[in-house]
Design goal:
By secondary structure, this protein is mostly helical. It is 60% helix and 4% strand. The chain has eleven helices and two strands, in the order αααααααββαααα.
Length: 292
């Protein structure tokens, strides 16, 4: 813990290593210090890979937004309901008419920027796929893919950010670490719950919330889910199906009771983290030495 984080009395302007050591010793004895998990080299390397893919995805999204804005400025709108960024979509853009010839140069520049961004995303995704079998957390990744809304990229991203989830003694600890629990303001007999705390790892929290949107549909075991879960353990498949039935029903009941859809999705993400913790605990129990 850095010296700047050590509590000190108002007006106490004397700082020495000896005084800091004494304060730390007293805090440790009283149990006021919390152990911090430090990722190893392998974990850091996988985190770099997952974060690079996220950065490239942001660049791709920005390039697409710029191209779409250019087309809309000149009155060219892709028909609603049709899939965007397909071969047909690009061919349609290249056949549009513009009043000046240099605007065709601009169009090609935007299209090439989108193609380059898409290639970067595809390349880094392929690298993640090749790196996965060599990662010590690979069995957990395969089992997390059994969950609805979680694919290889999101599973690797979650575990790259959070590491071994069994270091949390309970799902509630993980939920609190992710900042998915509501803040509480209590004074005397009055108790009021506010927005979620949003503490901890924001990348992992975003991945969970994105996955939670998949539970707005009725629970069912599709062919896509079976393909994703082909390398998952039997226990993971059972837990994921239990989670799907629970979370789909939870989403429906909260929406019907009048809850905002965004708030409902966050509530589903909170419960989803508990099921993920359970699967990780089951998978890590298969190893004599937990991967860190």
């Amino acid at each position: 813990m850095a010296p700047s984080k050590i509590p000190k009395k108002p007006g106490d302007r004397i700082k020495t290593d000896r005084r800091d050591a004494r304060k730390l010793a007293r805090l440790l004895r009283s149990g006021d210090l919390t152990a911090v998990w430090v990722p190893g080299e392998e974990q850091e390397a996988m985190r770099d890979l997952a974060r690079a893919r996220n950065d490239f995805k942001i660049q791709e999204r920005k390039a697409r937004q710029q191209l779409s804005a250019f087309m809309l400025r000149h009155g060219h709108s892709w028909p609603k309901g049709k899939t965007r960024w397909t071969k047909g979509h690009f061919e349609w853009m290249e056949t549009r008419k513009f009043p000046h010839e240099w605007q065709y140069v601009v169009l090609q520049g935007y299209i090439r920027a989108v193609n380059a961004a898409e290639k970067r995303v595809a390349d880094i995704t392929a690298e993640m796929s090749m790196a996965l079998p060599h990662w010590s957390m690979a069995p957990v990744v395969y089992s997390l893919m059994a969950f609805r809304g979680i694919d290889m990229v999101s599973a690797m991203g979650l575990l790259a950010e959070l590491g071994d989830l069994t270091r949390f003694d309970s799902p509630k600890q993980l939920m609190g670490f992710l900042g998915l629990v509501p803040s509480i303001h209590a004074s005397g007999p009055t108790k009021r719950e506010g927005e979620i705390t949003k503490t901890g790892n924001s990348r992992a929290r975003r991945l969970l919330v994105e996955a939670a949107w998949a539970y707005r549909h009725p629970a069912r075991m599709t062919a896509h889910l079976r393909r994703k879960a082909k390398n998952a353990s039997e226990e993971a498949r059972e837990i994921s199906w239990k989670a799907q039935k629970r979370l789909c029903g939870r989403y429906r009941s909260l929406v019907y009771s009048g809850k905002n859809k965004n708030q409902t999705t966050v509530a589903v993400a909170r419960e989803l983290s508990g099921f993920i913790w359970d699967v990780t605990r089951v998978e890590m129990a298969r190893f004599e030495t937990p991967a860190r």
